[in-house]
TrEMBL record:
This is WDR64 protein. The keyword Repeat applies. It comes from the Eukaryota. The gene is Wdr64_0. It comes from Sapayoa aenigma (broad-billed sapayoa). Keywords: Repeat. Coiled coil: none annotated. The keyword Methyltransferase does not apply.
Amino acid sequence: VLELLDFKNALEQFQKLVDKVITQKTKERSGLSTEDDDEIAYDKFYTTTRALFGPAVKDHNIQAFFRKIVNKVDGSPDWLEIFGCFIGESDGLSSQLKESTVFLVSEKQQITDSVVKRKDVIKGIVKVPHLDFTVTASQKGVITIFDSQCRVYGIYAEMDTAWITGCDFLPQLKYVVAVTESTIIVWNYKSEENKNNCFVIKPMKNCPLCVSTVTMSDHLAKDSILMGDDKGYVHLLTMTSDNFILKQYKAEKGSQFHVLDSETFTMVKRKLHDDWVGKVRYISALKRFGSCSSDSISSFVLDDIKRLEDNLPVKEFSVPKGVNAFTYCGKAKVIVTGG
């Protein structure tokens, strides 16, 4: 606590120092003279900053920070920059792994459990904050849950020939959902019976390429997912606990799955793109869903999920060669796309 109080006080003193420099440079540009005692040259700025933060700051960061203040007094840089949070390649990886008196950056941890075979790749990874674990799905069918210590909580190896293209977690039903090129897999990871804990939903007319949970229902036994396919359609499929009642199971011979007919599920779809759908996501903060595609005309769509059920125009924009990925930042209230 004492260290935090000292750091907060140092920040306050540093901000006063920056304000003095800005005031000084503003007066100079206005043609007003400043008294010698109040003048803060680089040497004084460097000495004061070093006294406030000690070895936590680098010489070149202090120099760069001072240069930014002098050149642009109307928009001073953020205090984080004094600690090199926006460092370039010159510092390298080794400096990022060292402990700082201001920021502690832990080294990356390697998971030693061999959960993915050779020539296999991770196709989906999702964090489940309220349960404090992470779900991963590999292309060849290995679905894994890691706890906060990166230990394997549960694992299921999917035996179908189709590749997995994405995964997510159903918060109400407490199931893991994954999509393959021809099916939807629902895994009840809590089941103690490994032979009766996985369901496959098929047939699928098009090839699902991505999946995302829709977190807008408080119904304890109901979840919805968004899926994008290779024909430009975005699907909304609703699952309830009734869909997984034992009497509806149809086990295929030699299969570890319980097969469920896709026609028994509530599903709506709408063609929003003229090419593959690369990613779908429901953004709870905006109460909107987003989908992107390599389509140059309908590259990114952001609208109410009800638009999937009607034919009203959707909010979209175009990017040459399309959009491959997007994300939403709630703090900055911006959506960033990558093409």
